[in-house]
């Protein structure tokens, strides 16, 4: 094939550029080779980031979308490569993130024949994506690509473009003929202004103005509405709680900021949600439904850009389809200040009590380190220009409860899918999006063994190109899949099942040294501050291995946590020495809770 012959594969790459894509994540394979050739021909225009595994590439694309607000793009080969993408695509689907997957496929003549690597990708991706289409002819390619991007952006969902090998190799049809059966499609899309009807805003204001104890539940929909959320909360004298996804978008330093809600949240959020008589949900689809106000107790207004979310978690009285910033701005002049500050004082009291409790919990001695202290020490020194990525495990709880993000510092994780393995891929995507900012990735040892060990190889291959080489991976080494161990105790009343829960040893810090990165291992609380300082000022990526206690309790905030105490106690009684230590920590935490009332 002559070099000058422009192929459908080249058209695909040009179209990605036309949609503003500058970087894509992926892995190689013969099924997608023509596109890889086109990427080579395109040169610097489009950066290909090679992950160790297609799932990680897909998670990088999700991370890219979350940190930048752009569409994340992932590329893989047919068959096994395509199957590997699924977890990342579901992460995008459940957290409402725009991602486009460009996936190879066998040639058209063998589809449906169980040929080598033959998988029906239309069916495979059918549930994971909001749009999946196999490109069946050269003229079909621009239509499908444009539709995938438009759908991803319009619905904030993953979409898949499946490219049979032989279609990638066809000559690019240029220009497209204007005839029946051919669409001359273009990459064009602008954001709409979405505002509720004035009458509905008035009804919402009536509900909120009638309240004596208002609260806000803020989600990721408030990404561009931080100021408006603050203004509305101040006007109403409301307590503010967030979903896990909403945490980076509110200022948690405010005295009325009660922090993250739900099982992994704060006791202040539990107080605010159980006592409020009106709730304003802003851009949140938080799944912890049992932590919402008791049914019938709180009249509720919900604002969401996606009308499918209105009333989808809680029986709302007024559902406002609208952009969070625009809607709150329109609502603000209709809202009255509270008659007195009784409720505000109740909220600030609960927040102050929670903050004091959190500090005391982190100070509890553990063997050897208390993981809560590890995160609090980071919180004290997190650079104002940092980016943070977080994994799924007990670290999610400590992130939610102990890390205060400076304004403008983004932190992301796999929230609704809650897939282990988000910290390293997300962190790499964040770092590549802005290599001049320091990155901190927080992960458990199980997650690092699952995919972090592999993606540290990617870090080792990339870091020398970064303007700021700081990339700190903090591994909570507790030798356990601790979050699930605590779930076995709390939800099943079972003791730890060693065979499923214990992790094999791995030398995380020494492994970093082996890769040419820096390894720091801490097992004494006195060394923690210096270790964080060293990691955050290193001249290369660092693995900070914190040897932490798996027995530090992981309970929901009280009063929900209090109801679980008996069951947990009886599980721990069957757990030998470790159970005894966990029990002592549990009783101490319960005592602190009661002391602070
Ligand atoms: C892909 C995936 N597999 C399994 C789980 C279930 N799960 C949730 S947390 C967790 C344990 C995490 O262990 P680790 O990373 O060591 O963190 P720890 O809780 O010990 O701090 C597991 C197995 C999950 N959420 N995602
Ligand atoms: Mg662990």
In short:
This protein has 597 residues and is of the alpha/beta class. It is 42% helix and 15% strand.
Describe the structure.
By secondary structure, this protein is an alpha/beta fold. Helices cover 42% and strands 15% of the residues. It contains 23 helices and 18 strands. Strands 2-1-3-4-6-5 form a 6-stranded parallel sheet, with helices on both faces. Strands 9-8-7-10-11-12 form a 6-stranded parallel sheet. The chain has a 6-stranded parallel sheet with strand order 14-13-15-16-18-17, with helices on both faces. β15 (439-444), α17 and β16 form a beta-alpha-beta unit. α1 (8-18) crosses α2, α10 (226-236) runs parallel beside α12 and α22 runs antiparallel to α23. The termini are far apart. The structure holds thiamine diphosphate and magnesium ion. The site of magnesium ion has 8 residues, from α17.
List keywords for this structure.
single chain, binds magnesium ion, 597 residues, six-stranded parallel β-sheet, alpha/beta
Instruction: Report the radius of gyration as a whole number of Å.
Output: 25 Å
Q: How much strand?
A: 5-15%
Helix content: 40-55%
User: Which structural class fits the helix and strand makeup?
Assistant: alpha/beta
> Assembly state here?
single chain
Number of strands: 18
Any low-confidence stretches, pLDDT <50, length ≥5? Answer: none
Query: What does the main sheet amount to?
Result: 6 strands, parallel
The main sheet orders its strands as: 2-1-3-4-6-5
What does the overall shape look like? globular
Average pLDDT rating: 97
In this entry the ligands are: thiamine diphosphate, magnesium ion
Number of helices: 23
End-to-end Cα distance, whole Å, is 77 Å
